[in-house]
């Protein structure tokens, strides 16, 4: 077996175990606390209804879905079986809509917003950090405190400030939603234009905060590399500055990939709250609604899909890292 | 120890961060004695702009926002501090145990740490908060603390592993000192600066976590925190009403607190970690 496939299989097993634990936590945490909240919530939901037939129908749906009358183990098996058939239950708040259907409409918006924003922020932040470390002087003194300040602003704070300045005061961009509400989603220039205008502010607020954090990390890594022996040696050898800075950039870049993998969870969490500020029709906004309505199946669906996608993204990054970083291959070779 | 504190006092970054933070803490602790009103008392119309009487205007219930902000900063800082202490202690115990003992304990603890680094703590935070019906700010702080230790654990483990086989530790072992004494007097002093830095970062991230979770509507009950102020502003549509004073000051306070904590951390990093001094 080649060294790389060994690395791959090892990583795969670890992530599979992590996935199992994440799914179990999603099942068990809300049920651990005294008086199974699911059953309490079911009784709360049916309180508001007056028609006794509907109450019975709603109650039966949830009793069947959660298997509340059965022991915990059977409940867990039902939960897993439903997961495999892609059934995340029925929403309390939007009864009788399926949680899977709600999430299916939300996911494209969230992915369309976060994936480009995090990538752009990461790339720009790294370039800025490297430049700050390399140029030093005034440039570094200006960039570093700004980056540090931007990084200490929570995502949603920047979002709310941008909403106020560019949306409300200057009226450059719309305030909420994913597109103009009177439009019907279709492939026309007008509709795409509307989507882009609604996309701009949330996109920018995520990009800005990501740039801040990444620039700080990259600056630190680059300074560390710039002070290392090989740089001094290359300089003494008379290798051109541009070539040396390429070496430095390459070496400082590698840990940044791991850094991205590790901070992904926080970033996605922050961006979800950013969605709420703009009432962007993604998972974050649904989560917000679900929490306010105590819509337990929807909350659980949202947390599950977020956890699974963070795990997937992390796994992908680690696989890429294994290809990019020669040290990983070397370490695997030694093991053999 | 005295020596390193003296060096720290010369770092402008560390000093600026500390001074801002100390002034802020002093102000929010003293102000309630000067203005003894209840922050939840309604005393004006909804969303009144700032004037000489109400320094930061009023919120949607007509409450004095400046007073609310002072109490909010107090709660948020307390939550951050407790969460930071809690996360640092758990991380320290896990990291020391796995780094010093090695073998099976190390493998087991490292596996747990790696798993919980990948599962977003934000998700666990939501799941636990949804399930607990009446959350005080202390409960929220503890939940944040027990979901954010893996970073510290991983870093402490790395440092401890590299210290374990140093000569001075081996001598202490040969001299027959007990494990707890070796950890306390031969290992802890070497990683102390690192732990303090991790604690500062954990506190900052604790404040940010509290703000995020409160924004979602899962914050502590019966209290005012910066996140809750933002949540109210959003739920009652302060931005649409043009009431910037309902959310900009709270947002700015979060940024200033975390900024000064990060600044302190960077200042310490530059002193204790000579390799990144530029």
TrEMBL record, chain A:
The keyword Flavoprotein does not apply. SUPFAM superfamilies: MetI-like. InterPro entries: MetI-like, MetI-like_sf. It holds the Pfam family BPD_transp_1. Residues 107-317 form the ABC transmembrane type-1 domain. Its main location: membrane. It is a multi-pass membrane protein. Keywords: Membrane, Transmembrane, Transmembrane helix, Transport. GO terms for biological process: transmembrane transport. The chain crosses the membrane at residues 12-29, 113-134, 146-167, 187-211, 257-278, 298-324. It is found in: Cell membrane; Membrane. The keyword Membrane applies. PROSITE patterns: ABC_TM1. GO terms for cellular component: plasma membrane. Belongs to the binding-protein-dependent transport system permease family. This is Peptide ABC transporter permease. It comes from Paenibacillus selenitireducens. The lineage of its organism: Bacteria, Bacillati, Bacillota, Bacilli, Bacillales.
TrEMBL record, chain B:
One of its GO terms (cellular component) is plasma membrane. The chain crosses the membrane at residues 12-34, 77-96, 108-132, 187-207, 213-236, 243-264. Its main location: membrane. The keyword Plastid does not apply. It holds the Pfam family BPD_transp_1. Keywords: Cell membrane, Membrane, Transmembrane, Transmembrane helix, Transport. GO terms for molecular function: dipeptide transmembrane transporter activity. It is found in: Cell membrane. It is a multi-pass membrane protein. Residues 73-265 form the ABC transmembrane type-1 domain. It comes from the Bacteria. PANTHER family: D,D-DIPEPTIDE TRANSPORT SYSTEM PERMEASE PROTEIN DDPC-RELATED (PTHR43386:SF1), OLIGOPEPTIDE TRANSPORT SYSTEM PERMEASE PROTEIN APPC (PTHR43386). Belongs to the binding-protein-dependent transport system permease family. This is ABC transporter permease. It comes from Paenibacillus selenitireducens.
